[in-house]
Every structure is written in C-alpha cells, then in structure tokens.
Design goal:
The complex is a heterodimer.
Chain A: H1 7-24, H2 28-34, H3 39-47, H4 66-79, H5 85-100, H6 103-114, E1 120-123, E2 139-143, E3 146-157, E4 164-170, E5 180-186, E6 192-197, E7 208-219, E8 223-224, H7 230-266, E9 268-269, E10 272-273, H8 278-306, H9 313-338, H10 349-357, H11 366-383
Parallel strand pairs in A: 1-4
Antiparallel strand pairs in A: 2-3, 3-7, 4-5, 5-8, 6-7, 9-10
Chain B: E1 2-7, E2 9-11, E3 18-19, E4 24-25, E5 32-34, H1 36-51, E6 56-62, H2 68-77, E7 81-85, H3 95-109, E8 112-118, H4 129-137, E9 141-151, E10 155-161, E11 166-172, E12 175-179, H5 191-199, E13 204-205, H6 245-261
Parallel strand pairs in B: 1-6, 1-8, 6-7, 7-13, 8-12, 9-12
Antiparallel strand pairs in B: 2-5, 3-4, 9-10, 10-11
Classes of the chains: A alpha+beta, B alpha/beta.
Chain lengths: 384, 262
C-alpha cells in the first residue's frame, strides 16, 4: 500500500531495511541465544545517523517526528525485535526530555542521543508498581541544591547500558500520584547501580535490568518540568512512545508474514507446494490483512501526534493494542504454517512468536490500553 | 590533498548475458550496482581520509549518464566529491583507452596522493584499469592490497595478497592501490549522506573537458578487438581409478600418455 511517504521518510525506510537485512538479520539468532548486548549494531545505528531522526535539527537530529521513528522502528525490528529495542527504548527514555526538558537540559542531552553516542532508558516500573504506576516507592528528597534518590526500579530496558536515565520518583508521598516528579540521572552519578540482568522469554538481544538508587544525589537542574509533574511526564511520554511499540510489533509481524509466504511456497507436501492449499492461503491472507491494518493505524496515529493534536492517548493506545495483538496472532500462525519446523530454533519463526509477546505487555498491558481507550470514549461522550 | 577512487557501475548479477550479435553485455532488465570490489576501494579511501588530516575523497566513474547513481551511492557513504566521465566519444573504450581517459581526469583534478580501485570489475574481470591508470600517470602501483599498515602523505606500507601469503610493499606516494575484499567491510550509507547525495549536482566531464588526445579515447583509441565471447562448457566430472596401486598406476600412466600423445 502507498502511504504517501515523503522522500525523506522513504529514505529512512530503505536505509533501515537495509541495516536490518544486511547487519541485524544475520546476527539475530546469535544474540537471541547469548543474551549479550548488541553494541556492534549500536555503532552501526550511530554511523547511519538514524539515532536522531525524531530529534529537532537544532540538537543535531533530523527533525522528524513519531512517524519517522515508527518507520525506522518497524524496519529495524523486521531484522530483530530484540536487538532493535535498544533504539526504540532510547526513544522512550528521551521523550521526557523532548517533551518537558528546558533549554539547558535539551542542549546537554539531546545531541548525545541524536549522534548515537549515548543510549537512554526510562525508569518507572517497580516490583510493586507495574500497571498501578501510582504506587511507586522510589523517593526523591530535596536536600539543598539537589535531590537524593532512593529505591529500586525493575525491568528497565537498556538498564546498565544506557548513559541517560529518566526516572520517576516520589517527591511528596502524601500527594499520591501528584507527588511524583521526573528526573534525568546520568549513569556515572554516585549511588546509581544496577541489579540482576533478567533472563527473558523473548527480545533477548535487549538488556532488561534493575536500576538501583542508594542515596543517589541528583542536582536540582535535572528535575524535568517541576515537582509533582512526574506522572504527567510519564503518561505524555507513553502517548508518544506507544506507536513505537506498535511499530516494533508491526516489524515482527511483517517478518513473520514474509517468512510464511516464502516457506509456504517452498514447502512441498502431497506432491505440491503447501501454498496451493486453501487452508494455508486463507491463513496467509488473514495475516496480511491484519499486518496492513496495523500499519495503517500506526501511521495514522503517528501523523496525528506529529500534527500537534491534543487528545492522542486514545489513538496511541489503539495503535499499540491492535499492532501487538496482531503480532501475537500472526507470529503464532507463522509457527503453525511452518509446522514442526516452526517449533525448532533452526527456523526463525519461533523467535518471532517469543519476541511478539512482550509487545502486548510492556508500556502498559493491552488491558490497561483498553482502559485508556474506554475512558477516552466515555469522556468524549460526556463532552457532547 | 585528494584521495581518488575509481568506480564502475555493473549489472547486479554474476550471470551476465551477452548479445551474440554485438558481443556486448545485455543490460536491459538488470539492476545496476557499484562493482562489489569498488565498494572496498571506497571504504578504504574513507578510512585513509580519517587517518590523514585534510584529505578529501573524490570518486570518479566513466560510463553512461545513469552511472551517476553509482556516484551518488558513493557520496552517501561519505565521499566528498564525485565526477562522471561521460561522452559519446568515450564509447567503445577498452581498458587501455579507459585508463588513459581516467588518468587525464585525475590530472585535471590534481593534488592526488592515492588512487584506489577495486581489484577488478565483476562484469569484465580484466583487472587492467588500475594498473593502466598508474602507467598513464607514471606512478607506482600495488595490486591486490589486503591491508594498509602505515600511511602518511608521502609513503605507504601495504600488504599485497598473493596465492601463498602476502608481500609487504613500501611505496612512495602518489600511487595506485587496487584492493581485495579482505581489506575491510564496507560501511552502509548514512542518512545525512543520502540526503547530501540526493541534492548533489555531479559534474559531467566530456572529452573536451579533460584535454585528451582524441586518437587515444573511445573505440579508435582501443587496440583491443573482442573476437568472440563465450561461457566455457562446465567441467566434466573426473574419473576415479580404483584397484590395486600397481594396476591403478599403470592405468593412470596409460591415460596420461594418451592425452599427451593425442
């Protein structure tokens, strides 16, 4: 389908696909097995100038928006949804600075991200605060010209590898959700350390780790926005970042479809290619319909966000939910089409199925997304 | 100072078809790419540029107007400037006339210290243009370079691949180096490079722009005549002689004798 991409967007798509095909795909199984962090690929991302596509030109980026980020994420995740997550998660860690950073903070941190010199990470989740993000326990206590952070963040993507952490912590517990604030914390800040690295089902080429704050002193210049804005920062960040998760799911799903079409054509049973069987044909057709519908929804949501529209939570959540449910369905069907081979690690589709699952869970489970969508619907109805 | 890279646009296939009437390549329906060996030349030029302060990489191709796409790809990888040599008068050039024409263009650019070429082109496979350019410019050449050990603006120490191993060769500069695929892994284009390349206006030089002797260019300047081009028949499977060593040796000696004596 023609999405009327600009020449620049098409260039991003072509280059990212080439990186995925030539540099990521050949090493994906290796990183999936070892669970190591893919630094050599990060270097390629940096050299290709793709790290700053969603960052303003003023800060060394290319001045694109959510659509450019989604296009790049989709293509890179076609190569591997795990390896390429470092790119998307850096976006997640950078959005709080893009959206709420002051001029000094932007000038200090954004060029580092845009050039690919530094990765970023977003640290909100804790052991007892997942979907219920309001119950975070990490505290930030004002002390003279700084804040002192204490607490443990869990399942932080890029944890230990990123240089820049955007962290949500409670500055005033009594105020509940309105007592949270967001901070930028540099990796080398004394009191910042990293806990165990998680052994995951999928996206194994990405780093997921505990981030621990022990009397970690952060200068007050690193407060994002003002005190009490922490949850607003987090929610607005998610509104912008969810199409990215959707794009990750889309890349994985598109790959599953491509692999399935190819395999169905090659695999012969009963003396003929299995792609001649209607049972397989209908599966392939349904997979293609869902993948294309995901893409259309993601690109539309991204364009709406880039246009500066105000109420984006609903479309953003819709794109994430639809694309991730699609990825799970399509990758499961891909394994089915591959049959016994699909279940084996020698073939690429079981990994796609494992990688797809997380997209229904993180950056808000799909149940939380449906809650976001429903409350937007009700709000819209009441406003009429 | 300038580092020159000579590149050729070739069909994206190793299975080229030849027009039996004209003995030339059939290019219709085949995508064009930069000759794969030239990609290593571009990469090495860019790496040397990073080692030598103030160096600029100029990439040159001789070919039809569409060869500008190959030059743009080179610019998107980070080459600084590009020149296309394209003129009907260049048509029909063999490797001698081609290397003369390229040498004249290099002289016009001037201030060159290094000239990189791929070891050969994937379509013609002659491996003659690099050495030809060095001859026309009367500068040293090192072929099949697999590693540059040392380099400054006056000299280079390189490893030249041979069938048995490698030679270490020191050469004064300027020199022509032709490179093999073992030398590096070519980078991908960058986004900023692609955008710069898209906007770049690549100068096209014809015979009139490079002060050349018209008897030495194009078909007239080409002493080579292609009489026939054919794909050699695939080698037939050998025979394995079995039996007692004495008998097999006798049988083998007989077979060799038959072949030798016809």
């Amino acid at each position: 389908m023609d999405y009327l991409l600009t020449e620049e967007q098409q260039m991003i798509k072509d280059l990212c696909h080439r990186i995925a095909e030539e540099k990521i795909k050949p090493v994906a199984a290796e990183y999936d097995e070892s669970g190591e962090f893919p630094w050599p690929i990060m270097k390629i991302f940096a050299e290709s100038d793709i790290c700053g596509i969603y960052i303003p030109e003023k800060y060394g980026g290319m001045g694109g928006g959510i659509l450019e980020l989604a296009i790049a994420t989709e293509e890179l995740c076609w190569g591997c949804g795990g390896i390429s997550l470092a790119f998307a998660a850096t976006g997640l860690g950078t959005f709080p600075i893009l959206l709420y950073g002051n001029e000094e903070q932007k000038a200090k941190y954004l060029p580092e991200v845009a050039s690919g010199r530094k990765l970023a990470a977003f640290a909100l989740t804790e052991a007892e605060a997942g979907s219920d993000a309001g119950s975070i326990k990490t505290t930030a206590k004002k002390d003279g010209d700084s804040y002192i952070l204490n607490g443990t963040k869990q399942w932080i993507t890029n944890g230990g590898e990123a240089e820049i952490y955007t962290v949500v912590a409670m500055t005033n517990k009594a105020k509940g959700a309105r007592g949270a604030s967001a901070f930028i914390v540099d990796k080398d800040t004394p009191g910042l350390s990293f806990g165990k690295k998680e052994n995951k089902m999928g996206i194994r080429g990405s780093a997921t780790r505990e981030v621990i704050f022990t009397d970690c002193r952060v200068p007050k210049e690193n407060l994002l926005g003002k005190e009490g804005l922490g949850f607003i920062v987090a929610m607005k960040t998610f509104d912008s970042s969810r199409p990215g998760v959707a794009a990750q799911a889309l890349g994985i799903a598109q790959r599953a479809l491509d692999e399935s079409v190819k395999y169905a054509h090659e695999r012969r049973q009963f003396g003929t290619s299995i792609s001649s069987f209607q049972a397989i044909q209908f599966m392939l057709a349904d997979m293609a319909i869902q993948v294309e519908a995901s893409r259309a929804l993601i690109y539309s949501a991204a364009r709406m966000i880039d246009s500066g529209a105000k109420n984006i939570a609903k479309v953003s959540a819709m794109s994430k939910t639809f694309a991730s449910d699609t990825a799970m369905k399509v990758t499961t069907d891909a394994v089915q089409i591959f049959g016994g081979y699909g279940y084996m690690k020698e073939y690429p589709v079981e990994k796609l199925m494992r990688d797809a699952k997380i997209t229904q869970i993180y950056e808000g489970t799909n149940q939380i997304q449906r809650g976001v969508i429903a409350s937007a619907l009700i709000k819209e109805a009441l406003a009429k | 100072m300038k580092i020159i890279v000579l590149i050729k646009q070739v069909p994206e296939t190793t299975d080229v078809r030849i027009d039996p009437e004209t003995n030339t390549l059939i290019r219709e329906g085949v995508d064009s790419i930069i000759n794969p060996f030239d990609m290593y030349a571009i990469e090495e030029a860019l790496r040397v540029k990073e080692r030598l302060e103030g160096a600029k990489v100029v990439v040159i191709s001789m070919g039809p107007p569409q060869a500008v796409d190959a030059l743009k790809e080179a610019l998107s990888m980070g080459c600084d400037e590009a020149v296309l040599l394209s003129d009907r008068k260049f048509a029909g050039s063999d490797t001698w006339a081609t290397s003369y024409t390229l040498a004249q263009a290099i002289k016009k650019i001037g201030d060159y210290r290094l000239i990189f070429c791929g070891k050969q082109a994937s379509d013609g496979d002659t491996a003659q243009v690099g050495p030809g350019v060095s001859t026309h410019l009367d500068i040293p050449q090192v072929t099949y370079v697999k590693h540059i050990e040392q380099i400054d603006t006056h000299a280079a120490k390189v490893e030249r691949m041979t069938e048995e191993g490698y030679d270490i060769i020191e050469t004064p500069l300027p020199a022509v180096l032709t490179v093999v695929k073992e030398i590096n892994e070519p980078r991908l284009p960058s986004l900023k490079g692609k955008m710069r390349a898209k906007k770049a206006e690549i100068p096209v030089w014809g015979a009139g722009d490079i002060s050349c002797d018209e008897d030495k260019i194009g078909l007239d300047g080409s002493p080579t005549r292609v009489v026939k081009i054919f794909t050699p028949p695939p080698r037939e499977g050998g025979r394995i002689l079995t039996g007692e060593p004495d008998e097999v040796a006798k049988e083998l000696a007989g077979l060799i004798k038959d072949i030798v004596t016809g």
